[in-house]
Amino acid sequence: MIGTIVYKLTKDAPIDKIKGTPFAAHYANHGKSPFPHNAAGVPWTATFINSKDDPIADLHEDMAAEQKARATYEHLIKLSDDPGVIDALKFLREREVVHYQRFGETLRIVEEYMNMKKHY
């Protein structure tokens, strides 16, 4: 989503508006194409996905990821002065909050199930 927002904001930007900005490094490697990387330019890889084959640990990891995404959206909102971008980021931030809540509810259900006495 963020890549799409950046693309829409930069697709028609002339090169003289790109030179000397933080976006110039991205442009040098990828042009104006969306390319998933963090703010430091580190490309996204599957190593960002964590799984322990333990539902409790995995749900905690999911919840942490939602909070990290929420914090990133909040930082981006503070950096933006475009009302349309801010509205989109607010929507995405709220979506992360709801995801966090749903993972929390799922965690409680899984913990209850794992702690209940099993009858065979």
Keywords:
66% helix, 2 domains, 120 residues, mainly alpha
Can you characterise this structure?
There is one protein chain. By secondary structure, the chain is mainly alpha-helical. The protein has 2 domains: 1-48, no CATH class; 50-120. Helix content is 66%, strand content 0%. It has 5 helices and no strands. α4 packs antiparallel against α5. The longest helix is centred in the last third of the chain and has 33 residues, at 83-115. It is elongated. The relative contact order is 0.10. The model has no long low-confidence stretch (mean pLDDT 91).
Shape: elongated
Biggest pleated sheet: none
Strand elements, count: 0
Strand portion? under 5%
* Count of discrete alpha- or pi-helical segments spanning 4 or more residues: 5
- The ordered H/E elements are HHHHH
Measured as a percent range, the helix fraction is: 55-70%
* Low-pLDDT residue intervals, each spanning 5 or more residues: none
Q: Give the N-terminus to C-terminus distance in angstroms.
A: 47 Å
Mean pLDDT: 91
What class would the helix/strand composition place it in?
mainly alpha
Domains counted in the coordinates: how many?
Answer: 2
Radius of gyration: 19 Å
